[in-house]
Amino acid sequence: MTTITASEVNKLRQMTGAGMMDCKNALVETQGDFEAAVDYLRKKGAKIAAKRADREATEGCVIAMVNDSRNAGVIVLLACETDFVAKNEAFVELAKSIATLAMDNKPADLDALKALSLNGVAVADRLMDEVAKIGEKIDVTKYELVEGSNVVSYIHGSYRMGVLVEMNNAATDANMVAGKDVAMQIAAMNPVAVNRDSVDANTIERELEIGREQARAEGKPEAMIDRIATGKLEKFFKESTLIAQDFVKDGSLTVEKYLSSVEPGLTVTRFKRVQLG
Questions:
Q1: pTM, whole model, 2 decimals?
Q2: Computed from CA positions of residues 20, 22, 24, 30, in that sequence, does the dihedral angle turn out positive or negative?
Q3: pLDDT digits 0-9 by tens, 114-172
Q4: Residue 121: what are its φ and ψ, rounded to 5°?
Q5: Structural domains in the chain, sorted by start
């Protein structure tokens, strides 16, 4: 049987971040072969991840960023089980490094992001390493990419929500500030769409049906039901679509009027909002 020294165990621990006993067992199982021991720990991490697949990973870190040209932005949510892990500096740095990787490569979807190489290791494998080291479920659960002529990012709270806003005018310092303001609006008010034209048909029909049922419950005449429901839909558009909402920093303006006051014709063409939980 191969004799494993404490210094060898510590060396593997420094390489992988895994626990001392896990490192010792890995070296024993692989007869002191460090590369094989690293693979052994990764496989163990995969098993741990499988055992934890049904666990709730509702904590984590949301990173939103744009490139220097402001013509593309990403949001990445690195999820974990506990607030203790989410606030760990190394965990936040890992989330930032994955977001930077996404920003540099613009993968098409979440699977493509996990297949990218991060410091020589696939993101998916790096996540397994973290599971082995930390001992709780860790995964990139959300990824959004926005490409356009003028994209602004915003991170709300302690990495608990990320927002991307795409605007129509060419990027300027003034409309970057406006974009941040609107991103904060999106974080606070959670609009369903940019404007009434971008609300999907199913949502509109659902709101109309709710309005009809409310009117009937109030005892309104059947002949008035559709008109009342249409009025309630108008209220929904006002409260739930971004540019029609009252601007949170100045209630005398809608978001649409605020943007126009910054630059003629300035408006939002698209947004993404990712929140923990």
A1: 0.87
A2: negative
A3: 999 999 999 999 999 899 888 899 999 999 999 998 999 999 999 999 999 999 999 99
A4: -130, 135
A5: 6-51 (1.10.8.10), 59-193+268-275 (3.30.479.20)
